[in-house]
# Entry
Amino acid sequence: MKRGFACVVTLVVTALSIVALAARVGEPAPNFTATDSNSKAHTLSSYRGKFVVLEWHNQGCPYTKKHYDSGNMERLQKEWTQKGVVWFTVISSAPGTQGYVTAEQENDYMRRMNAAPTAALLDPTGDLGHLYGAKTTPHMFIINPDGVLIYDGAIDDKSTPDQADIPSSTNYVSLALSEAMSGKAVSTPTSRPYGCSVKYAH
Amino acid sequence: MRALIALALLLAGMTASAHADERGVPIPHGTVELVSEQQSIQPGQTLLLGLHFRLGPGWHIYWINPGDSGEPPRLEWHLPAGLRAGAIEWPAPSRLPIPPLMDYGYEGEVLLPVRIEKTTGLAVGTTVTLAANMKAIVCREVCIPAKASLSLSLPVRADRPHELAESAALFSAARKALPKPAPAGWRATAKDLGDSFELTVNAGRTISQAWFAPLEPEIIENATPQKTASTKTGIRLILKKSDQLLKPVSRLRGVLVLPQSAYVIDAPVAPAPAKRPKKEQ
# Structure
């Protein structure tokens, strides 16, 4: 009997946490603590008062390469961190899969690419990816200074791996940040997050 | 007799080698080829072409709605003046699970038909070249972009064209794989249940097994198993709404995929009932 009761309690708690944890635009963004490539821990809630961008990343994915080899992503990171935005690159590739990197490899990569996020969060277990429901690389999320998710989707409106498409595309991240910073509603709060599948362990 | 056999073997050999040369343009993990259903173009008549993919085991390309990742192949046509290419006609897709995600596409071999319309103004006796630049993403565990410049030359003849023997089986299979318009007696309706859609297909007969492939992205959670219930007159499916769907949708458009056939679905969505009472916790 006691065991039966415990099972019921567990189920209820699981169901509740699934509901509470879903990352949905207009709702509080799920809190997390994750470790970056310099072994520093970052907790989302400690960045209240700032805009936070989450950028799912896999350096081997053609769609990620489109935005890094062209310098587009690095430019965005510089532009928005200079305006006070906290930018986390998140790597959820499991060990042995495309895009998995050690801390040292990631730091080498960021130096080589001249990447300028606030930090690169290493998520080889995929916990952070699952918490946000990150589907692709690059999948982008924006959290406002009140901790509310205001954007969930693609980096821009041209779902191709071609660098040539970047100049003519509308960048949804820049658009959402510009709008939110000037007190406007985000005109495109969601879009299909195009790209490669995140290489989760399971 | 022996000479005849020798001739037959020679012809077979020639056909095989000619075919081998035309076996398509190499792309990562396969080939792609522009093929024609017929041997010639008759002015004023529609011509059916196909984009023929042959990929290695496990490698796939994507449906018009690729699902959670990937993107569909795209064609940029270069046609003689007066000719116009229709959109790709998409065969019913397969579900390609990559847990926790779900994609829609085609594994291995597929022919994507494209209709060339308006062939008026072509001069009988000339040869026309139909060319297209193809872009796709070919994926298995990883994705590789694929590009190919494709072309096909066909003579313009006044008489009714003959089928190209080597394409006949391909095009006949492709026709079978295309979703059919819903039969006249069918009725598809949907209800907004708040967190999900209930899609009811009334076909006048029971449907024991089917799944719904949504035409538009970010309408349903692709990876959430679709709960189905066969009814005497059809089937009912519960489709979990996408987390990204923030506005109500007025229609559910897509394809109902049965084990041996597929049908186009365009169901009006009855809006969600006015705010449901919150459950006490």
Observations:
- Residues 187-270 of chain B form a domain with the Immunoglobulin-like fold (CATH 2.60.40).
